[in-house]
Design a protein that fits this description.
Strand content: 15-25%
Strand order of the largest sheet: 4-7-2-1-17-16-11-14-13
Structural class: alpha+beta
Shape: rod-shaped
Number of strands: 17
Distance between the termini: 15 Å
Order of helices and strands: HEEEEEEEEEEHEEEEEEHHHHHHEH
Length: 608
């Protein structure tokens, strides 16, 4: 055993003697190799920058550093630029040379990282965070441990002191982690609230070229806040153009529908204009008819007076002949003859008046009939009316159109029902005039017979015949007068009733005039609607193209944040965090660790 220990000790001592030589040789070789590599110029394919910035809880910038990453093509010396206050090698233990804004380092690795610390370098965005507790503005440092309704407002804007390349091409994602043991009833109107384990994560997004203001509110107990995290990255995702074929077809259908509505309203406008012209003609004819009826009614009194006079004269003559028969002398027969001729003349005048009245009535009735006939037949379908209501036309105008249209159709249908009564008036007037003509002729013949036969006739026989004739004539005329009186009473009632009908037609005329104006206005409106929707599919495509051009940043070429001299920049990202608002953690004493043994200590332990 002792012999074995002796051999091991001898070998170890020999190793110790040789070790310094080996170390010196390795150091020389390493130094020689390092010297060779330092002199060689390296190359890289891409450079990435990650900018880390810390803000205070109100959004004011406090510190910033950049982690630079190089993907090497050839090992050797690399030159980079940046106004760093200090730099630190994150890849190996070699020093990095810095002269002003020039940074030089040597890399043998495929990926090389170094950190550059920046002072007074502003971010491309101005970020402001404000707080309200129960409606009162509160400083961040005053929030810790408070209870109440918290409202946080985050505002982002372009920093005018920095170029617009990042503001125009980068989107911001703002995240607020919220502990559910502290916060409840979390609301973020313009953001998204998602579960993150047992806690909640509130996220807002700011698109490129946009300045935004966001609000998140919650009820807090013993308030603490984690850091607000803001990530800024280039919006380089390519946006695929949406398939708008179906939508464009629907828009085309809408455009065609509005054009059809415009055409239908144009036809409606023409129909309303035709209706208005017909109603005006109807009103003119109604006015003539009303004047004729009123004239007839006014003449009825005179007609009745004349008829009553004739009736009284016939009765008086009949009574005289009946009572005086043989006592009548030639002179009285002469008076009788004259009376008969006067009655016959009065009947002829009455007949002439009735014939003139008949002519006036015929003209008035013709005007009325033509006016009613000029109202168009019902031809507007219910679907067309509903289409009007569904258009952008004024509903009140459409209601007026429909009511006037229905009123005109009602007037036309009512006239069709009572037309027979109007038609019967003219034949009745003809019949009455014929009766008067017949009675006038009979009276004239009686007067002629009386005049020619006074000298030769048998007075008693003639008186008997005359008496009988006068009694028959007086009785017949009594029936005629009764019918005439009834007829004139109906004429008076017709004149009174028709006055109300005529006033209604006047209102109808005013309504159709307004209706025509409303239809013209409606047609102009549907014309504007049709014009505005005629190129709607193209306008929609134009809007989509503009929106895609606004948010599609796929042609963006990244630039360095720290220096425009830097080349081959592939990506620049920003990681921005506010300081948290939290209670100080109590530091726990760490157990004492045994002092780490050096090489000689571990070596001696082998022999213990």
């Amino acid at each position: 055993m002792r012999t074995r220990f002796t051999r091991v000790l001898a070998a170890f001592l020999a190793f110790l003697l040789v070790l310094p030589t080996v170390l010196v040789s390795a150091e020389k070789n390493g130094a020689s190799q390092e010297s060779d590599n330092t002199s060689a110029k390296g190359s890289y394919s891409t450079k990435n920058e990650v900018v880390y910035a810390t803000l205070n809880p109100a959004g004011d910038q406090k510190s910033m550093y950049v982690v630079n990453n190089f993907t090497m093509d050839e090992p050797g010396e690399i030159i980079d630029y940046g106004p760093y206050s200090s730099v630190e090698n994150l890849t190996n233990l070699k020093d990095i040379e810095q002269t002003d804004d020039r940074v030089a380092f040597t890399s043998e690795e495929e990926e090389f990282y170094y950190q550059g610390n920046l002072e007074d370098k502003p971010l491309p965005w101005d970020i402001n965070v404000s707080y309200q507790l129960d409606g009162e503005t509160v400083k961040p440092e005053e929030l810790l441990g408070q209870d109440g309704h918290l409202e946080i407002q985050i505002e982002t804007a372009q920093n005018e002191d920095v170029g617009d390349s990042f503001f125009n091409n980068y989107l911001l994602q703002i995240s607020l982690p919220m502990d559910t043991d502290i916060y409840e009833n979390i609301e973020a109107p313009d953001g998204m609230v998602a579960n993150a384990g047992k806690d909640r994560q509130v996220t807002f997004t700011v698109m490129p070229e946009k300045e935004e203001s966001f609000t998140v509110s919650a009820d807090a107990v013993d308030l603490e806040m984690e850091a607000i995290e803001i990530a800024a990255m280039p919006s380089v995702m390519s946006i695929d153009e949406p398939d708008t074929g179906e939508m464009k077809n629907e828009m085309t259908s809408l455009s065609d529908a509005t054009a059809d509505i415009h055409q239908g309203v144009g036809e409606l406008e023409s129909g309303v204009a035709e209706l208005n012209d017909g109603v005006k003609s109807l009103y003119d004819g109604s006015e003539q008819y009303r004047d004729g009826i009123i004239g007839l009614d006014n003449g009825s009194a005179e007609l009745l007076e004349g008829s009553e006079s004739i009736q009284a004269s016939l009765k008086q003559m009949s009574d005289s002949v009946s009572s005086g028969s043989s006592e009548m002398n030639t002179e009285e027969f002469q008076k009788l003859e004259d009376g008969l001729r006067q009655i016959a003349g009065g009947l002829e005048e009455t007949e002439t008046g009735l014939l003139e009245l008949k002519d006036q009535y015929a003209q008035a009735y013709q005007a009325l009939d033509e006016g009613i006939a000029s109202i168009p037949e019902a031809g507007i379908a219910e679907e067309d009316i509903q289409a009007l209501y569904q258009s952008d036309a004024d509903p009140e105008v459409i209601d007026q159109l429909v009511k006037t249209y229905e009123g005109a159709q009602t007037a036309k249908q009512t006239y069709a029902q009572v037309k027979e009564a109007f038609v019967a008036v003219e034949p009745t007037l003809d019949e009455v005039a014929g009766s008067l003509s017949e009675m006038s002729t009979n009276l004239t013949e009686m007067a002629d017979s009386l005049a020619s036969g006074l000298e030769n006739m048998d007075v008693d026989e003639s008186m008997t015949e005359l008496q009988e004739g006068l009694q028959t004539l007086s009785s017949s005329y009594g029936d005629f007068h009764a019918g005439l009186k009834e007829y004139t009473g109906g004429t008076a009632e017709l004149a009174t009733s028709y006055e109300e009908l005529h006033d209604g037609m006047a209102g109808l005329t005013d309504g159709t005039s307004e209706l025509e104006d409303g239809a013209a206005e409606l047609h102009d409106g549907t014309g504007e609607l049709a014009a505005s929707t005629s190129d709607l599919p193209d306008e929609m495509q134009k809007e989509i193209d503009e929106m895609m051009n606004e948010f599609d940043k796929s042609d963006f070429d990244p630039v360095s944040f720290v220096s425009e001299k830097n080349e081959k920049v592939d990506n620049v990202q920003f990681v921005i965090k506010t300081e948290s608002i939290k209670k100080d953690e109590v530091e726990q004493e760490e157990p004492e660790q045994e002092e780490e043994k050096g090489f000689w200590g571990r070596l001696l332990d082998l022999f213990r």
